[in-house]
Amino acid sequence: MPASSLPPPAKKRKVKPGADLVKKLEVEITDAATNDGSLNPLLDLLNLAQGTSDPADLSKIIYSLYRVFVVITCSDKLAPGGGDAAKQVRKWIWERLDDFVHILVGLLQDEESALRKSALDILFSLLRHLSSSLSKVSPDGRPQFHHSHFKHIVRGLLICPPSPRSSSSRTCEGKLMPDVRDHFVATWLSVYDDVRWCFLREASSVLSCFPAAEYPNLAANLLSLVDRLTTFPTETSELNAWWIPELGKKPFVRGEKFGADDEEDLVVSDTENEDDWRKFFDEQPKAKDIKKTTDIKGRVHQLSFHQSLHSLKAHRAVFTRMWLSLLPRLSPDTSDTSRSLTIRALNIMYRGILPHLTRAILVMDWIGACVDAGGTVGLLALNALFTLMKDYNLDYPQFYTRLYAFLDKDILHLKHRARFFRLTELFLSSTHLPAALLASFVKRLSRLSLSAPPAAIIMIIPFTYNILKRHPALMQMIHRANDDNEPFNDTYIANEVNPNATNAINSSLWELLSHRKHYDTAVSTLARIFEEAFTKPGYSMEDFLDHTYGTLLETEFQRKITKEPALATELVKDPFPLRTDPALKADKGIASDRRDVISELWAFD
User: Fold this and answer.
1) DSSP string, 321-338
2) Alpha carbons 400 and 171: distance in angstroms, whole number
3) Residue 438: which of 417, 419, 459, 424 has the closest Cα?
4) How far apart are CA 467 and CA 460, in angstroms?
């Protein structure tokens, strides 16, 4: 075949077949929304979104749909009013908007990270436009929040439905994607007061509607969001950031009457007695705080939605209700997953939860159950329990009995032993504690040190020194001498569970004395502090809590040897001399003249 005399065709950029169609449909829908034309192309655009598997094409389609719905919303197509034909059109548009929202909610679990972030951005942008549109047509100019749209967002974050992309190979596990979680918390939840208030209220409703057996990851998803909530208002003046700008207006004066057809009233009455729970969280103001407070006056359950957003008491009420709904799902006795979630909740309990509750003692039963569970969970729950006792006047007479029960053979081998010593030093810091109680703790730790690793003994010795320094009545435990002619009899009752009845005060700390001969020089040197005068003000426990076998070895390796150690044996230059027997050279696997001791050990005849 002769060669062609025509020049080779020029390379053209390949245009995907759906790109022009998406643009054409967007133009048609925009013109129809502006000129009151037919919106039927909107259904075609939605069908394209549902049938597209390519992430780049799908990204273009969802942004095109977003722009189309913004135009429709801003042109008051969704505003109430009009005849039967207008109502039918409005109903049809709402159905198409729900289809679009379901696509976006599913994309929050998509395997493409760009689609996940874009879907969340579009959902919140639509929330702003829909809420502003409602505020524009609301009676008396009351600002509105589109609760029904926000419910879809919250359920997408907590329930995590699968992605609608047919080619998505990722199986839905119902777990919130980390990038979606971080983007939501950093951009909206920790920034805007209206989003945080509505999220906490809606999260409580989701927990009550979706059982844990069918949605096992619901509690984990919610906890992953709220434990990253580092900003919560503590004063009314801090309520100043609003995702819906109209909600930043000063709320109406309490007692002013509004029309019954208000959208907010419709939303609240959409479920039975949705806000009746707020009566339970009402806080009675103190007499000294009534004059100086700038918070919205009135009982929480009597406030409107707009007033609640500007009320610090209302924010604390939804926060309390959310945690009271979540904590029962975090049981330390059910499974390892639930136990790990319980530990995460306890880690933030005393600093991130208790200060913001309407009444901190509402979580007393759950914390008490965690203390009874023991182990790491019980250890962390002790801190929250002590905070309730110290700051909220909780009466828990068996606190030190429960603390004493944690001193078992495993406590010095746990990962959280450093935190345990921090907490125990805090719990025993009072000078009004009885000497018999303190003697039991000191004696139990001394007894446990006999089987403890060196790093744990290094914690116990300064800990005991500080207690003896703070309570001179215990000094007799290190000065009690024993008659050499009589057998030693320790009066300490190790099996007694009541720390006030162990008779440890009449015993001695001979266990710590034995550590003077410990193989580790750091332990043996530190144990000699009890032989010196107690002139030091006390040790800082932070200097001893981070020691491990690695740090002890590193310290020994870096120590400078000023004097060569004495050796009790002669130094042999060649402990393994050359083989001289020719018969031995012929042994299996031995070919060199140098003796191979390892091979000889494993040579079986």
Assistant:
1) HHHHHHGGG--TTT-HHH
2) 49
3) 424
4) 11
**CA gap 40, 55 in Å, rounded:** 25
Displacement of CA 136 from its chain's centroid (Å): 39
Q: Degrees (nearest 5) of the Cα angle 400, 401, 403?
A: 60
223, 230, 233, 160: which is closest to 197 by C-alpha?
233
- Kindly report the number of other CB atoms within 10 A of residue 377's CB atom: 22
Backbone angles phi, psi at 437, to 5 degrees: -65, -50
Nearest alpha-carbon partner for 463 in 448, 442, 478 = 442
Cα–Cα distance measured from residue 454 to residue 519, given in angstroms and rounded to the nearest whole number = 9
Enclosing H/E stretch for 129: helix 113-137
- How many residues are recorded in the chain? 605
Give the span between the Cα atoms of 155 and 198, in whole angstroms. 13
Neighbouring C-beta atoms of residue 553, cutoff 10 Å: 10
What H or E segment, with its residue span, contains residue 455?
A: helix 454-470
Between CA 403 and CA 603 the distance in angstroms is 57
Q: Angle, to 10 degrees, between the axis of helix 364-373 and the axis of helix 375-392?
A: 140
Q: What is the pLDDT of residue 212?
A: 87
Residue 368 belongs to what H/E stretch? helix 364-373
Q: What is the DSSP letter of 424?
A: H
Torsion 390-396-400-402 (CA) sign: negative
How does DSSP classify residue 277?
Answer: G
The predicted model scores a pTM of 0.78
Closest CA to 105 of 94, 92, 118: 118
Report pLDDT for 127: 95
DSSP 449: G
Rg (alpha carbons) of the chain, rounded to whole number:
36
- Inter-residue contact 108 to 177 (CB < 8 Å): yes
The amino acid at 286: K
Angstrom distance (rounded) from CA 513 to CA 461: 10
Note whether 63 and 122 are within 8 A (CB): yes
Q: How far apart are CA 359 and CA 281, in angstroms?
A: 8
Mean pLDDT per segment of 10 residues, for the chain of length 605 residues?
A: 45 50 90 87 91 89 94 86 84 93 94 94 95 86 91 95 68 82 95 96 94 90 93 91 92 51 37 48 51 61 87 94 94 80 92 92 92 86 90 89 89 83 88 92 94 90 91 87 68 92 91 89 88 84 82 81 73 62 52 61 65
The CA–CA distances, whole Å, from 97 to 93, 125, 152, 452 equal: 6, 14, 12, 65
φ and ψ at residue 520, rounded to 5 degrees:
-90, 125
Contact assessment for residue 342 and residue 370, using Cβ atoms and an 8 Å cutoff = yes
Q: Write the CA distances from 455 to 164, 408, 519, 523, 548, integer angstroms.
A: 54, 17, 13, 8, 5
- The amino acid sitting at 572 is V
Query: What pLDDT is attached to residue 294?
Result: 58
Name the token pair of 555. 């310290």
CA distance 101 to 202: 17
